[in-house]
Amino acid sequence: MKKEYEENGYLVLKHFVSAGELQKLRAVASQFHQSWKQENAQFYADKAVNSAYLTAPKHLTNIERDVLFKFLGSNKLVNVATSIMGSCPAFMNTQLFFDPVNKEQKNYWHRDTQYHMSVEEQQQALLGPNVVHFRIPMVDEPGVELIPGTHKRWDTENELDVRLQLNGRENHEDLSTGVTVKLEAGDLLVFSANMIHRGIYGMNRMSLDILFCDPVPELVKFVDNNCLPDSDIMDKLENSDVFMVLSRE
User: Fold this and answer.
1) Neighbour-count burial of 168, counting CB atoms closer than 10 A to its CB (0-12 exposed, 13-18 middle, 19+ buried)
2) Number of domains within the chain
3) Between 191 and which of 10, 129, 132, 205 could a Cys-Cys bridge form, CB atoms 3.0 to 4.6 Å apart?
4) pLDDT at 189
5) Which among 56, 223, 44 is positioned nearest to 131, based on CA atoms?
6) What's the pLDDT at 246?
């Protein structure tokens, strides 16, 4: 598993989540989505394709948050994350991915780092530390398009022009190096935040995305304390290590 991830920058574990577990996660995700849409109606209508901070108390009850935390702190998930990342990772955030309201809206190639780093910094980020997505579709969906190996290598000239919309290119143009990874409800897609990728819209997708990072201060500092479990919830978890890797004071 680790060898496949290190070589390609991603892997898929089919039917990772049981039907019962998925039903609980889907109910919580749906509740969050409905509440989030009401508060962010304009943004949702204009261009949104994802939301974040599901484990914060703003849109969910404590019971609903318990469901998420029990999954995030399950041995099953944490063991996969640890085996891939080499040491116990730190929980960073959760996101929910959905289809844009505007059916004409194009999906777009990107590296996560491009939204807060210069081009030079993006290149340096390929050396680490690492942030990794653990994505679970709540329903069958078209999946994600990834460019294998780009978690470790820099863009080709063509990839860079498209991704950053240089020299008249657009970030929604097809790239021949892309590989489409279709997903079924309950699958687990693991992929590096560093790699070039884009979501594929359609089929009323709703994917829960969990971000784990290497336990280093420059990444852990971005964790929102409101998204962490309290001591009562921590005591119920199979594996609470991901929430306690470093002090977030």
Assistant:
1) exposed
2) 1
3) 10
4) 98
5) 223
6) 55
